[in-house]
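Try this one yourself first.
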């Protein structure tokens, strides 16, 4: 703490973001124009084959996320690659329970939009490169964060140290920012692995998304632009390894046997990738001059397609809170601390609600005690018959916060948002 902060070789920025994945990139776009100078430190270039964020996964964007991207002026770049989900079919594998939702019954254009992370990433990267108030250090890995009297010094494996007034952890589930602030994370291993692949079928995707629950975990089949489907198949880890190693024909046969013929014959499969599934949640998301967003704050099971949508609302809320600050007030530890606490409070209900909903879904649908499957089937059938329950479900994509972020309401941030709404 006694180190001088006057060293001339240091870079300076009001805000340093560690991590420029899907959520970090979205935050930088939202915060641009606030008057705060920003530096983003990202370990991997966007075109790297092992990209941790902009990879071959598909993301189902809810209507709330669509609205945020519209307000930020990036939806027009995403929408050509986004397949609308107009119908959802939920079922309990091998049993009679099922439920159907149709967006027309809820006066919606769609329940959400499926886009590959690569295409979503490309749209965000295109906008990032235009931001006049963002410096980008990439590839560069943040190695240490040190506290000094009037800020934090961020060390990276390349380039000079940076003196920051605020460090934002958008650095994923294994967040170094979270660890550096001494903020614990509660981690629960689901003992499941998600295997993802794009598949081509004899019956092209028609806007229906399928969510099928099996005792090993959920199985999602999502429509993609071009008539293909994105598959997220949850398996136990050893089985996932075996399925990953199958040749294409054997993989298609195993998938067809698991899913059935609802989408026609499976003809071809693209590259497969696996993701071990854990729930990670930081009870506290603010520390001294540090704040967490996205997977650094909470990483969820993909069952309900909520992780990124929730992280984007983190980013939208933090941008709203910070854009109300001046360069001077962000430098004042007491004022900054108040602003960060306001962010944490605004996010608490949404974070807790979506995390519990997602976790509960995984657990209820993997239980095989004698009575549970029958109760599940009954619940699905009741859900299918209840317009109110369906209405509540269709509102999920707006989150559980008492107040939606301004960007999700279509309002620009007070100090001005870059880009056209
Ligand atoms: C199979 C699967 C399917 C999913 N489907 C959906 C879906 O349909 N809808 C949905 O909303 N969500 C979905 N999710 C969740 C979603 O992918 C994540 O919530 C989202 O990627 C989180 O983004 P992030 O930017 O917070 O973190 P990450 O994507 O983990 O990005 C973190 C970034 O930080 C960088 N980084 C980390 N440490 C450092 C460091 N020390 N220095 C510099 N850089 C660093 C990394 O290189 C990376 O680019 C899914 C997840 C999985 C696994």
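Now uncover the answer:
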């Amino acid at each position: 703490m006694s180190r001088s902060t006057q060293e001339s070789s240091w870079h300076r920025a009001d805000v340093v973001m560690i991590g420029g994945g899907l959520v970090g990139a979205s935050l930088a776009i939202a915060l641009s124009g606030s008057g705060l100078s920003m530096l983003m430190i990202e370990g991997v270039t966007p075109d790297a084959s092992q990209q941790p964020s902009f990879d071959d996964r598909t993301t189902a964007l809810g209507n709330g996320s669509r609205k945020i991207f519209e307000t930020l002026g990036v939806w027009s770049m995403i929408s050509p690659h986004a397949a609308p989900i107009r119908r959802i079919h939920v079922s309990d594998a091998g049993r009679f329970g099922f439920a159907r939702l149709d967006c027309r019954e809820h006066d919606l254009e769609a329940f959400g939009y499926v886009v590959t992370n690569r295409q979503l990433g490309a749209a965000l990267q295109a906008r990032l490169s235009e931001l006049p108030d963002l410096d980008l250090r990439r590839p560069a890995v943040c190695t240490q964060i040190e506290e000094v009297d009037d800020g934090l010094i961020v060390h990276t494996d390349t380039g000079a140290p940076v003196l920051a007034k605020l460090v934002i952890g958008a650095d994923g589930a294994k967040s170094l920012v979270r660890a550096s602030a001494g903020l614990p994370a509660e981690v629960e291993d689901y003992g499941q692995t998600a295997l993802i692949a794009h598949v081509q079928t004899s019956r092209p995707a028609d806007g229906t998304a399928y969510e099928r629950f099996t005792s090993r975990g959920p199985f999602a089949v999502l429509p993609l632009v071009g008539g293909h489907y994105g598959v997220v198949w949850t398996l136990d880890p050893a089985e996932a390894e075996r399925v990953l190693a199958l040749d294409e024909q054997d993989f298609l046969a195993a998938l067809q046997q698991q899913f059935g013929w609802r989408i026609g014959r499976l003809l071809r499969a693209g590259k497969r990738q696996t993701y071990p599934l854990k729930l990670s949640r930081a009870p506290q998301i603010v520390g001294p001059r540090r704040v967490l967003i996205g997977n650094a704050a909470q990483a969820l099971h993909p069952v309900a397609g909520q992780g990124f949508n929730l992280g984007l609302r983190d980013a939208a809320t933090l941008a709203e809170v910070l854009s109300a600050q001046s360069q001077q007030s962000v430098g004042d530890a007491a004022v900054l601390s108040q602003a960060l606490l306001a962010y944490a409070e605004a996010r608490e209900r949404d974070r807790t609600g979506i995390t519990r909903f997602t976790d509960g879904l995984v657990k209820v649908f993997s239980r095989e005690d004698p009575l549970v499957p029958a109760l599940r089937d009954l619940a699905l059938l009741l859900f299918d018959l209840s317009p109110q329950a369906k209405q509540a479900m269709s509102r999920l994509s707006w989150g559980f916060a008492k107040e939606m972020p301004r960007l999700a309401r279509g309002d620009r941030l007070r100090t001005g948002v870059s880009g056209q709404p």
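Discussion: The pocket of flavin-adenine dinucleotide is lined by residues 18-24, 41-44, 52-53, 57, 59-60, 141-142, 170-172, 176, 194, 196, 232, 275, 294-295, 302, 305-309, 311 (CB under 6 Å). Confidence is low (pLDDT under 50) at residues 416-421.
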